[in-house]
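Repro:
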Amino acid sequence: MDVIIRNMRISDVPKITKYDLIMLGETLGDDLIKKHIENSDLMKYFVMETKEEKHFIGQVSLWIDEDKAQINNLYIVKDFQGKKFGHKFMDFIIGYFESIKIKEVTLEVRKLNQIAINLYQSYGFKAIVNRNNYYPDGENALLMYLRIGSD
């Protein structure tokens, strides 16, 4: 299946907030996401969709600050999970970071989400801190870290 990864558009926002609630149980909301898309130099949003039918596969938001970045809210919707789309997204994200000279990347992941942890570890992320009761439901998070490049 051919996919495209593109910048999120304002017209995507209602779909994103809908899937944020389904996949994450929370959302930043339409207004804040729209504001980030239109005005933020720190936030970058990407959407993955099927090339022909334009079916929504997933999204990621990135926080970028000079040569550091954080991966936020990366997910693949349930109908497309288990088909290596997470790897396609990560390949894109790491390539994007390299193109803009990012040197350090962090992310938080639910400690019980072993599939996501395995994905991140396959790209060289290391778990560095356990954050107890991090999520609203009381689940712990792992803070993971990746150094890109050698300097």
